[in-house]
Amino acid sequence: MIIHSLHAEKILDSRGNWTVRAYVNGISGTAPSGASTGTYEAKVIPADRAVDIINTKLQRLVGENFNQIDADILIETIDGTDNFEKIGGNTAIAVSFAVFNAIHNSTKITKKIFPYPLGNVFGGGAHGGATSFQEFLALPTKAKSIYEALDSNVELHHRLRETLNKKVKTVGINDEGALTADIDDLKALDIITDIAEDVGCRIGLDVAASEFFNKGQYTYRSLKKTLSPEDQLDFLTETAKKYRLIYLEDPFDENDFKNTQELTKKIGNRCFVCGDDLFVTDEKRLQRGIDTKTANSLIIKPNQVGTVSLAQDTVSLAKKHDITPIISHRSAETVDSTISRLALFWSAPIIKAGVIDMRISKLNELIRLWNMAETPKMAKLNK
Ligand code: PGA
Ligand code: ZN
User: Fold this and answer.
1) Which end of the chain, N or C, is surrounded by fewer C-beta atoms within 10 Å?
2) What is the CATH number of domain 6-103?
3) Would you say the C-alpha torsion 19, 310, 109, 7 has a positive or negative sign?
4) Closest ligand 1 atom, residue 208 Cα
5) Domain definitions of the chain by residue range
6) Residue 20's beta-bridge partner residues?
7) Domain spanning 113-378, CATH class
8) Residue range 227-251, pLDDT digits in tens
9) Ligand 1 proximal residues by C-beta, below 6 Å
């Protein structure tokens, strides 16, 4: 594809912060942003600067014939650092997404295997809410179609809202459209798992443990307890068993490969033990995970590494070693739906993209692709 034009503008994201939207041949890509960001993620620069860099330095892409990899390599070369220190990972991903969308705009994505939507229904931690666990997630494992899958997740969200409204004084909504209430982590699990069975969902957690790890201890505010890493291992093992959890993300601090490995050994045959801040979509960190048998799945957030191609390298490495890649949104989003097309393109069995609010752009994109595909099928989950 020849890049005839490249330009950018700043737009608002779902938290009301400025972000960057790039256009390649009139087709857009937008950078999302996180709140519980991993230490090892690509650097983010202010939206104004990102726009400026795209409209000046990155104009070197214009006039050339590119595939995705060559465009992404040139973006990396223009930056010249390991972590997009100069041009920003947000600048890079906006352009890289736009290149992907421009290349695949006219060719239909013909994949038939659809990812299960993993949806955040209740939350706390850095996204707002009383619990220390950051996200309580629904996975509609019984669904036979994308419609059934999305139906189960919204049904769970709706019923949970009704139940909470009856039981607690104030029910709120946090960054990703997840519900919040003044209940502790275990009470929340009790209530959610009761409803989940009825609507055909299994439950998972994004512990996002780095966010409440301080001086070697995990402090659970509303449970009023502080756990050592060993106690955290026992607590999560029991919790996973009691609530039949199918998914546990970042169960320990982002530098703790050892305890994540222990947990994987204990529950990994029946639960996706997943690294987000642990791996930050980075091929080298994932390789370390593979070498040490740490985690059996990982979150792929393309903006953590800055380009579609770098994220794709990590997806390929994961697949080669039977690590399940889970393509994910960030807590601050726009209506950009690139990750839905990427999930299909990479045949990822799970996509983490919320349940309601702005996330419907990604979910509705899955519906569009489902309706376009001949004989579409849901992916196989190995748990
Ligand atoms: P984010 O976190 O706020 O960094 O996007 C979401 C997550 O931890 O999965
Ligand atoms: Zn996470």
Assistant:
1) C
2) 3.30.390.10
3) positive
4) 8
5) 6-103, 113-378
6) 10
7) alpha beta
8) 999 999 999 999 999 999 999 999 9
9) 34-37, 206, 208, 276, 330-331
